UniProtKB/TrEMBL annotation:
Organism ancestry: Bacteria, Pseudomonadati, Pseudomonadota, Betaproteobacteria, Burkholderiales
Domain HAMP stretches: 308-361
Coiled-coil ranges from the UniProt annotation: 37-64, 349-383
Name this polypeptide is given: histidine kinase
Catalytic activity field: ATP + protein L-histidine = ADP + protein N-phospho-L-histidine
Entry's EC annotation: 2.7.13.3
Source organism: Massilia agri
Residue span, Histidine kinase domain: 383-602
Principal localisation: membrane
Amino acid sequence: MSSLIPRLRLKSLRSRLMLLVALAITPIAVMTVLGGMREREAAIRASEENLQRLTALASANEAQSLERARQILVDLVSVPDLLGPTPRCNALLADVLDRNEGYVNFGLIRLDGEVTCSAVPMLHPVNLGDRRHFRRAIAERRFIAGDYVFGRVIRKHTINLTYPVTDRSGTVVAVVFSAMDLAGLDTYVNEINLPLGSVLATADSGGTVISRRPDPERWFGRKIAPSLEAAMRAPSHRPVVVVGEDGVERLHAFARVGGPSLSEYTVTIGVPLETITAAAREAQLMSLLGLAATTLLALLAAWLAGDILIVQRVRKLMDTARRIAAGDLQARSGIAYGREEIGRLAAALDEMAATLQAKEAARSQAERELRAADQRKDEFLAMLAHELRNPLAPISTGAHLLKLLHSDNAQITQTCAIIARQVEHMTSLVDDLLDVSRVTRGLVSLSTQVLDLRKVVDDAAEQIRPLITARRHQVVLDLPDGPASVKGDHKRLVQVVANLLGNATKYTPEGGHIRLQLRLEADKEFVIEVRDDGIGMEPALVERVFELFTQAERTPDRSQGGLGLGLALARSLVELHGGSVSATSPGLGLGSTFTVRLPRFTQAVESPLDAAVREAALVSRPLRVLVVDDNLDAAHTLNLYLAAAGHRVEIAYNGIDALKLARVFAPQVCLLDIGLPDMDGNELARRLRRLPETAGATLVAATGYGRQQDREAAAAAGFDHYMVKPVNTVQLSELLARVAAADTPAPR
């Protein structure tokens, strides 16, 4: 070591600078290598999360297809012709097949396995008694999504979906089935964009492929690879790396299609590991190249620099660096870029400043693009809500109509109640999703008034009473005798309390206890405390229970699902009212307590509207009503409901036909959809206002769009009322009653 020191000339400036540069670069080189490794690991972790979300989306799409099939079979069971003569049964099933794309057959199976009727003509008798899904449907008395089969009648790749048919005593007398074309099932995941080389597959309970991208037709009915099947059947369903049959390493994520009561299918998405780590490798390579270039420049500068020249120019560089660090990205060194080291260092510093300046400009551009993307996201949510609400509207209206026409039939009344509850639940999920988006961005305005929290609690309890009754919970409401006056939005506060009670109901076992106490503390604020003896929470979950999409683990007895939005929405709405919300739990199995605090309002509560006014308004006279909707189901179910109420109804499916009808029919009320094919509902409303026959008519927007800007646009176009699909038939009846009371119709 002593003989090496003279050779390095450590007493010279150049040797010392070079040694210092070498020592300084060494840790950076080590950190660069370690950083590259961490970036690779971080890329894989991030991809795992994104892949899990993408897989969950794919499984949700396929679950939606199965749920639609289940609903079709449930509806078929209630049709008398299904068990009638074979020709009438065949005609019924053929009509159902024509109306539903993606299906290749519908049929009815007797208990001995013989297919008695079929939407597709059978050339010879067919017995399905050996089918596992048929036997399970009889044994388990519920909807069964069967494994892959190659249809005996239609000769196509299918999955059979079965549902038991029972008589009035509850005995299974037959099984109705639908054969879904696997090519149709595959279309539900076509909108999911995957990187090149990725694989998306769905397997049944036996590991047989029923959906795959790419090359679906080549894979239908084939077994998935043993290694992939083993990972798919693992209880954790964690993302794993599996080598495919083509020798490519892919990161696979898994998700069940629906709950256990819907199917035993599993979706997996595999993305090539090389694609995931490509960006990290490129970044590490660029870092190493940059480090190598920096090291070379620094060593050259240390070798050739002189004391005075280095000191003077380094001071300039230091001053420039300080200005850049202070945010002056236009700062430059002012040193001539020569071939010597300081000039090169000055050039590097100026280049860095220019790069930072360009990156700042790019960041600003990215921020603008993010804002634009956020706007597109809002538009997507609005369109999503519209598309989800459109099919809910005829379902809800049809259920109310059936209940109205068959009020003396207990079975139909009960079925209608079930349909109405499920439509209400689906509508609630859509509203929660949109409410969270609007509240978190400050786009919700409260309609505040002085109100009594006791009424809020009563309305919230009534809202979730069906769920409480179904789970046989013992609920105690501890309310004060006197008014509990606060200033707020009644609808939103009911939403908050209903979310807290609904959360307690979901996570409390059947027969459990829930207690809601409303009390005044320190004469300043009212406290709403919801306490249950349910599953409780771990400390880690308590800390983040009010975050978006956070949920405790649900066991099969808590099948009433949600999106993990209710508590996050409750916190945002309480904070908009100037209050606070908190949660506590002693631990797992020891229950939970949620506490809402709202400032007290000292003035007296405003008295509610006189109930007699509402009852008087309900005494309606027949009206001429024009329904305009391009959704045939929605238009016809609304027509049936209004006709059953005694009103005269005309239907138009586009704006041009609506204008022609209006001139002849002279409607007193016009129910208009916004999204029409030839002109939107707002333009149609403006034209109707210009017609003498409809200038004074009551215009009602009935649409799936629910954003505030949509409501404002409708008001500007001349609409008198705005209703979001599915239209609340009670509110619609009250509205028509008020119109009839204010306008005595002329004889026609």
